[in-house]
Amino acid sequence: MPSKGIDRYLVKPGSKFEMASVDTSEKTLWEDLTKDDHEATYDMLRDELQHLQKVLYAQQKHRVLVVIQAMDTGGKDGCIKHVFSRIDPQGINVHSFKKPSEEELAHDFLWRVHPHVPRNGQLVIFNRSHYEDILAVRVKKLFPDEVWKRRYRHVVEFERMLAEEGTTIIKIFLHISKDEQKKRLEARLENPAKHWKFNPDDLQDRARWGDFMHAYEDLIGKTSTECAPWYVIPADRKWYRNLCVANLMVEKLRSLKMEFPHPTWDPATVRVED
Amino acid sequence: MPSKGIDRYLVKPGSKFEMASVDTSEKTLWEDLTKDDHEATYDMLRDELQHLQKVLYAQQKHRVLVVIQAMDTGGKDGCIKHVFSRIDPQGINVHSFKKPSEEELAHDFLWRVHPHVPRNGQLVIFNRSHYEDILAVRVKKLFPDEVWKRRYRHVVEFERMLAEEGTTIIKIFLHISKDEQKKRLEARLENPAKHWKFNPDDLQDRARWGDFMHAYEDLIGKTSTECAPWYVIPADRKWYRNLCVANLMVEKLRSLKMEFPHPTWDPATVRVED
């Protein structure tokens, strides 16, 4: 099975991260392959991911949490759909976090998140996450600065607890350029079948692109930990983004060295009566 | 309103705590008063507590979490019933944590706790808590030592997050002697109306009294923080225990300097039409 140096996109814990260090349109890991080869590789990766999830589910030992963040049109929905669609729906759960409700805001910011973390044998994907409670809060100035600043520690320690209790955490930022977003937004506007995905409010976030990049840069650098590292994936090219995420998932799940559980009874002694 | 030096029972954050430093049968704070005076004082404290909770509920600003731990017969149920029974049930919620279910054990240990933390304006009491996942796990050797050792940090950071997000946390250990427990267990055995409260398994915990005291001592010392301090309350005398807890609650709620919310509209401009 193919495996590439996906750690190229790992944000090293404890290091200062610079967003500009990742080229949104690069295709280094697979640039030597033809388009047909990309597709064959992607196909193999998805098969292996499907297999690994089966073992994860059967073994009921590990919990896997994937956090996906991106700017609007960054490819969160598309990536989830493409990379994870072969997986048995019984073992995977995608949770999308929207604007918090009044009830959610009346609690600490992790209160609405915690119930959705994976149980043994489960793979959970967060489409947006508790990181919005730092990012959006910071850029849109929803609360005083000390609130989001304290939350760096809160998320790091929350994730440490999850990890030490048995959860494998993979955090992915799908990184697109401002130009690429423009193309995608225009495509949405031009295609009536995609109008439902367009929200005029997204343009407000776009107008603060620099603020968001700065907030992401700071956030990713400060919350990439051994327990829960960030991967910043070039996402201007959808095929490359999907290959990277599939590859990352396969590498992470392989590293758990999972196996189907051995029966606790001796199959030789079991007889099915007439 | 009466207020005594309840900080006598505060476990100073960062200090080494010795269980033997608290005499389970002492009555220092109110020993100069007669029994009638105790009752009058207790009555006033409960009235004030009732009032403070009204403001808490009306203001919808603060969240209050009370964690109560004790050995069996230590008085958790009795204390909750006595001290908090005058409070409007709409604004108070008591959550008892039992032996974790299979579903709960398939998640991190804080997963079952987090949904029950208070929202704005709410007072929540935990009758037993996430601390059992350290104590019972340690004394009964339910998981390897590294599991409960890591959990010290997990609870401290969880509580820090809750506190920084707006929750006032008060942790109470009702401290009784082994002799006092014997009396109470015997009383339960002798009274058929109390048989439902007796569980033969409690005798197993009693047989490990020394181990539990050692585990509590270590736990309380290491998890008493500025954000979420422990109070070790002498609890052999029920009247004294109740006075102390009522007094502690009143002091903590007073210190929030709460007030009824001011209307955001001008009452003078409102006219109720015919």
From TrEMBL, chains A, B:
Family: Belongs to the polyphosphate kinase 2 (PPK2) family. Class I subfamily.
Keywords: Kinase, Transferase
Stored InterPro entries: P-loop_NTPase (IPR027417), Polyphosphate_phosphotransfera (IPR016898), PPK2-rel_1 (IPR022300), PPK2-related (IPR022488)
Signal sequence region: none
GO biological process assignments: polyphosphate metabolic process
Highest taxon of source: Bacteria
Name used for this protein in its record: Polyphosphate kinase 2 family protein
Pfam family membership, one: PPK2
Occurrences of domain Polyphosphate kinase-2-related (ranges): 33-257
